[in-house]
Amino acid sequence: MIKSFTDQIGISHTFESVPKRIVSLVPSQTELLVDLGLEDSIVGITKFCIHPIYFKATKAIVGGTKNIKFDKIKALQPDIIICNKEENTKEIVEELRQICPVWVTDIYSIEDNNHMIRDFGEIFNKRTNAQKWMDKINFAYQDFQNFIQNKPIKKAAYFIWANPYMVAGNNTFINELLKLNHFQNIYLTKEGRYPEVELKKIRLEGDPDYVFLSSEPFPFKDEHAFEIGRFTHHAITVFVDGEMFSWYGSRLLKAFKYFKELHNRIA
């Protein structure tokens, strides 16, 4: 039976049968596909798809998220390629469309995340598994909202890169999760989703209570924490698990538990 679906950037796709061979070009979405029971259907992944850890030994590596080996993907004869608007460029997506349908997600919120899970459940005939994951995530989300509701709102800066220093700005999933955690992002008015910042201006631009140094994509060290800290007034610098703040999909379930632990640690 022919079925039509519309992805999160508004592109319609028609499938004559359930796609059996999947190439996933987004690490968090690879993890979600596995958790939905699609491990055997995944034939290609990126070098950054590190969960589950053994995938690097059992699946074809087709490059990074922005540096794709198109010939390798074509040779895998996929039925569908899973991309993300932020992770993969428009040019990459357009070229991949010459191979097979390319499903593009666009995640800014927890609602978007549920939409993605529901879509995957429909496309891959895993509706029951998808509903179970949405139910677990929504329960954990409600529980965390109860946990956080009486905590004061604190100002924060979330660093993702050094030399040049870059932060998470507005219209990012990271910012959505900061807001959920009652952290007010001091760089919301900066232009761009991941703007460059000058450390010497950090007090003028918001003077955060907390400086978060993400574990990915840049490996921050103590010297970075010291350098950034020198320009703040009283900020507490905290190394945080970047996967918990930036990975969507099924990872969100673990993230809510992590956020509770984080608040208890920095309280």
Mind explaining what this structure looks like?
- With 267 residues, this protein is an alpha/beta fold.
- The chain folds into two domains: 3-140, 3-Layer(aba) Sandwich (Rossmann fold), CATH 3.40.50; 151-266, Rossmann fold, CATH 3.40.50.
- The protein has ten helices and twelve strands.
- It has helices at 27-35, 55-58, 70-75, 90-96, 110-123, 127-148, 173-180, 222-230, 242-246, 251-266; strands spanning 3-6, 12-15, 22-24, 42-45, 60-61, 80-84, 102-105, 154-161, 166-167, 183-185, 210-214, 236-240.
- A five-stranded parallel β-sheet has the order 5-4-3-6-7. Strands 8, 9, 10, 11 and 12 form a five-stranded mixed β-sheet that branches. A two-stranded antiparallel ribbon has the order 1-2.
- It is globular.
Descriptive tags:
five-stranded parallel β-sheet, 2 domains, five-stranded mixed β-sheet, single chain, Rossmann fold, 267 residues, 12 strands, alpha/beta, globular
